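Hi D.,

Good news: the full-assembly prediction came through. Inputs first.
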Amino acid sequence: MDSLQEVPSEQAGLPDPFNDISCGGWEISDEPRGQMSLWAVSLQGKVWFREDIHHLNPEGSSWVEVQVPGEVVQISCGAGDLVWAVLWEGQLLVREGIGRDCPKGSSWVVVESPSPEVGAIHVAVGVNVVWAVTKDHKVWFRRGINSHNPCGSGWIGMVGEMVMINVGLSDQVWGIGAEDRAIYMRQGVTANELSGKAWKALPSLRDSDRAHSSASASSLPSAGCFFSGEVRVQSRGSVIGDIDAGQEASCEAAPLLHGQADAPKPLIPKVTSDSFISELVSDRDRREGAVSTPIPEEDQGSEQDDKAPPALVLSHSPSCGPDPQWSNVDLEEAQTHLAVGAASDAAETSSLSSVATYNLGLEEPYGPDEHPLWAWVSGGGCAVDSHSQLSWFNSSAGMCSSMQSMSLSVSPAQTAAWRKQIFEQLSERSKREMDNFRHYEQAIEQTVWVKKGTMQWWRDWKPHKWVDVRFALEQYCGTDGSKEGILFIYYTFNEEKKYLHAFINEVTILVPVLSDSKHTFAIYTPERTKQRWPIRLAASTEHEMFDWLALLTMSCCDSRGVQGPPSKQAIWSVTCKGDIFVSEPSPSLEASPYPMSCDQMFWHQIGGHLRTIECNSLGVVWGIGCDHTAWVYSGGYGGGFFQGLASSTDNIYTQTDVKSVYIYENQRWNPVTGYTNRGLPTDRYMWSDASGLQECTKANTKPPSPHWTWVSDWTIDYNVSGGTDREGWQYAADFPASYHGSKTLKDFVRRRRWARKCKITTTGPWQEVPPIPLCDVTILPCMAQSKVEQVLLWAISNKGDVLCRLGVTPETPAGTSWLHVGTDQPFKSISIGGAHQVWAIARDGSAFYRGSVSQQNPAGDCWYHIPSPPRQKLKQVSVGRTSVYAVDDNGNLWYRHGLTPSYPQGTTWEHISNNVRKVSVGPLDQVWIIADKVQGSHSLSCGTVCHRLGVQPMEPKGQSWDYGIGGGWDHITVRGNSLEAPRISMAMLSDRPVPASSTPHSPLPLRNPEGMNGNVVQS
Amino acid sequence: MQQAMADDKDVLRDVWFGRIPTCFTLYQDEITEREAEPFYLLLPRVSYLPLVTDKVRKHFQKVMKPDDVGEMWFEYEGTPLKWHYPIGLLFDLYASNTTLPWSIFVHFKNFPQQDLLHCPSNSVIEAHFMSSIKEADALKHKGAVVNEMQKKDHKQLWMGLQNDKFDQFWAMNRKLMEYPTEEGGFRYIPFRIYQVTSNRPFIQKLFRPVASDGCPHTLGDLLKEVFPAAIPQNDGQKKYQVMIHGIEPMLETPIQWLSEHLSYPDNFLHISIIPAPSD
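Then the structure:
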C-alpha cells in the first residue's frame, strides 16, 4: 500500500545531508490530531524542522532551519512537547515554547551535561521523560520533567552503561549495553516510576530464529542507505531501501521499492526514532485498545571488531507484502547515529518487523555461538503496558513455529497470555469437573487445625509481670463454610492450670510492639479496648512473633471476610511507631442516632512505615514518611512481615524511612565549677530520655527496633521548643520545669537534646513521589459515586511552601507535577473540603482560607487571613464537606462557626474539646480525632482514636466522644469514608421534626467571597 | 488500580480445591452378600487414593464378608491405579477427555503385585509424600529448606494434605517455594513427565528454570529438551496434549512459574502427555 518516497532535499534547500532525524509531537498539548513534528540534524550540525506535516500532507512542505547555539549531533523529539538535542561539545539543548500553535517552539535552553568532565553523547525523550547517555556510557535520567518544565530539575545517574538509549511509547526505555552490546529494556517503568527499576537484557533475536525472515545473512550485500555520504553503496541522501535481487523471492516488496516508478500511490515518508508515525498516517485513534501494535524494530548491529570492515545493517519489514522497506545504517562510531528504522504500515502492524542482516565483506556477522552485537534499538512502535510481562521476548532460539507465531503477533493484552489462559482453563476445569457434581460427598471431612507455641504473657493482675504460657490457635470450619478460630493462653496460677481465651472473630486488632528487649505484640478485643488493657504476648524470637502475627492476622481477616486491598472507603491510621493500619467502615459507623461503637472496628496492618496518611473516597491515598518523603498507595496489600498468601504479588515495593532518636544531657550548676555533669543525688540521670526517668547514654541507646539501623552519629539538636543557646543548652530553675534558651540568675539546671538518625527498610504497597519532601498533604473528599476528572490534592513542602498537585486521578494517583502556590510565610498544615474550600495553617499559628479554588482553577486565587483563637497558635486543620475543625498547640479542638456559602471564612472559633492531638473531618462531616489521654477501666491510654457522636447536618459539632483503638496512635484519616448509614426517620424515634435531609448533602456552593472579615493578604 | 483481576494465588487455591467426581463400582468378580451400590465421591486432585477412600472401603465392606476383604485397590479400564501417584495425575493420564464421573472399579482381591505397591497404612503414604518433598527440595534448594524445617513443620505439610487444609499446608509450603531473587528461580525444576504408552514410569531430568543467558525457560523449552514430540510440528497438527491439573498450559508459560503454582503438594510438577483426541 505504502512505500517510501524520497523527500527531495534539494528542493527544500538543504545545504547538507542529514545526520539524525526524529519525529513526534502527535500528542502536543491540545493539538488537533493529525499534526506531527519532524526534526532533523544535518551533518554540519544544523537543525531543521519540517513544516506542515499532517495526515493529508504526510511528507510536509518544506524544511525550515531552526537556529541553534552550537553544533548539534543528535536530536530527539517526543510524542508530546519535549524536544532535546545534543551539542557536539556535550551540552544538551531543550526546546522551549512548543505548543499547539507553535510546534517548532520558540527558544533553546542549554542544559549542562550530567557529568562535568564528560559530555553527553545521546539523548532520548518520551512524553514525560528524558534520558541521556554521556561519552563514558553512563546513563542519566532527568528529574522533574513535565509539560510545564521541559528542562527538568536535575540529573540522576542510573546504574548500567549504554551506548544509546531509546524511549518508546508510554515512556518505556530501550538501550544497547556498552559492554555486551545486548538490547536492554528498562524494567518497571510505570507512570508512577518513570525511571524504572532495572535493566533487563532481552534474549537475542537472531534472524535464524525468525520463521519469516526473508533474507539470510549470507545474502549478497545490498545496502539500504540513509542520508550519508560515507556509506559507499548509496549516494545522495535517499531514504530508499534497495533490495538485492538475490534475496528470497518471497519478498514481494522488493520490486516495489526498486524504483519509485512502480509505486502506484503518493508515498509517505517512513521515519521513526521514537515515534509511531503510521498511526498518524492511518488516522486511527491510538488510544483505542484495539489498535494493533507493532513490536519494536531491533536492528541487528555491526560487530564492533576493529579489524572488521564497517558493516552495514539493514532491516526491513517482514511480512513481505506491500510493506515498505526501510533501512537503517550504522557506522562504527557510536556517536554518529545515522539512521533510524521506520515503522511498518499500520494496517500491517500486527506482524513484527523481522530482522535481516546484510554484511559487507563479512561472511558471518557473528560466530555461530556468539550473540549479535547490537548497535541501535528503537522502541518507538512498541506500546508496552507498564504492568505486562514481556514474555514475548523470552522465546528462545529455535523454538517451534507455534511459539514464533505467538511471539510475532503480540499486543500488550496478550503478553501474559499464558497466565490468562491458565486462569481461564482452571475456571473451565472447575466448571466441568465440579459444577454438576456438587451433590457428591466430599472425600475429606473438615476437622480442627491447631497451631501451638510457647510465649510469655504480661499477666493481667498485679504484680504485673511476664509469665511463661502455652499459646494455641484452634481453627475450624463453621457449618456454613466460614472459618472460625479461638485463641487459648494456658497458664499456671497457684500451681493450678488455667486458661484464657479469645474468639478470633472478636479480635479487633493485632499490634506489634517492637522493642529492643522483647518481641511483643498486643491483642485487642472491644472489651480490652474499653479497659485500655490488651492481651500482651512476647515471642521468643522476632521471627516467631512475625509468624504468629501473620497467621493471626490472616485468621482474623478470614473470619471478618476481609481480603485483598483496602477499599476506597477505608479508614487509615498510623501509630506513633509508624505502623499502618486500615479498617473497613460499615455503613453503621456513621449511623445516627445509634452508630456502631468504634471499639468494635476491626483494624488490620498494611506494610510500610509512614507518619501521615491522607486519602479520599476515590481510592487516592498518599502518605508521608518521618523523613518527609511523599508516597502514593500502589493498590497492593501486605508487605512488611506479611508474606505468601497475606500479601499481594504486585504493587509491593521497598520503602525506607529515617527518623531521629533523642536523648537529653542534663547538668546542674554549682558555685565552684559552674555547670557540671554531677547532679544532686535526687537528680535525674545525667543522660536521660525526655522524662528523665530512663537513663539513656549515647552508648547504650539503641535504635527503636532491630529493623532500624543508625545512619548518623549523635549531634546536638538546636531545634527544640523553647529555644537553645549557641551550644544547644536550655535552662531552667530545676528539673522538671519549662526550659528557655538563655541563662538567667535563677537557672540552676540546664539540658540539651542530642539527636541521632536511624533508618528502616521495609516493604509495602507504597511508591515514592519524588522529589519534594512534604510535611502535610490533603486530598479532595468526595462522595463515592462522584466522577472527578482531576482530584485536587494540596500539600505543604518541608520548607513550608504550599503546593498543588496536577494530574491526580484515580488511575494516576501520583499525579504529574507540582504547582507552587505563593504565600508570604511558611505553612504547616492544609486541608481541602468537599466544595473545594482550602484551609491552611501558617507556621506562626494563624489560619488562612484560599479563595476561588475550583475544578477549573485548582490553585485558587488568593489567601484570606483568618485570626486564630485568642492566645492560641493553631497547628492543624481539617475540612469536611462543610465543617472546619482545627487543633492548636495546646491540644484544643476548635470548630469554625458561621460558615455560609456567601461567607465561607466563617466568623468565630468555638471550643469543642481539649486533649486533642489531631483531627480528621470526612466527606460526611464526620469528626474523628486522636485524643491525647483516654482513661480506661484498667489503664490510661495516650494517642487514642475517638469518634464524635451526634454529628448531624444541623448539629455539626456533635455531642460527645466515643473511644476506639489506642494508645500509641498518632494519625487517622476518615476522608475516604463516604458510606452513609441507611437513614432512619427521626420521626419514628422522637417527636422532633425531621431535620431537612434534602439540603444537607449537597456541598456548599461557594462563590468568590467578598472580603469582609478575612483580609486578603496575597493574591 | 484496585483491580479485581485474578491473582496468582487464586491459582494455588484452584489447584488445591480441584475435585474429580468419581463413581466407585465394585468389580464383578468380588463376592458380596447383597448387591453393592456404586459409591460417589468428590476426590481431591492433589491427594492420594488411599488417603481419601476410607468411605469407599466402609461402603463396600458392608456388603462383603470380612474374609473376602483383602487390600483395596483400584482399576480404571484395565489399568491398576498406582496409589503413589496423585489422583489428578492418574485422571489426567488415563481418563482425560472421558465423560464424568470417573468410573473406577474397586477390588479387594487379586492384588496386582507387579503393578502396585502395597499401602498398609497412611504412614506409608506420609513417608512417600515426605520423600517426594525432600527430593523436590534437593533439586530446588539442595535440600536446604526442607532440612531446616523442624519435625512439626513436616507434620504440618502432611497434616495439611491429609486434612485438606489449604492454609495450613501453604503456610509451610511457601517456604519451599522461595528462591533468591537474583537467581530468578530454583536450582532445578522438580518435574516428572508421564505417558500412557511408555514402558518407563516417567521421565525426570535436571532442568534449570533459567537459561544461561538469563532468560526464563518455558514449558516449551522443557518439552523440547525432554519430550520434543509433544511440541506441535510445523504442519500445525497437535499429536499430544500436555496436561497439568487437567489444563493445558501454553508452551510459553515460564517453567519456574509453573513449578511455583502448578506443582502438586509433593512439590513436583506432574506432567501428563497424552495422545490428542482425534475428533
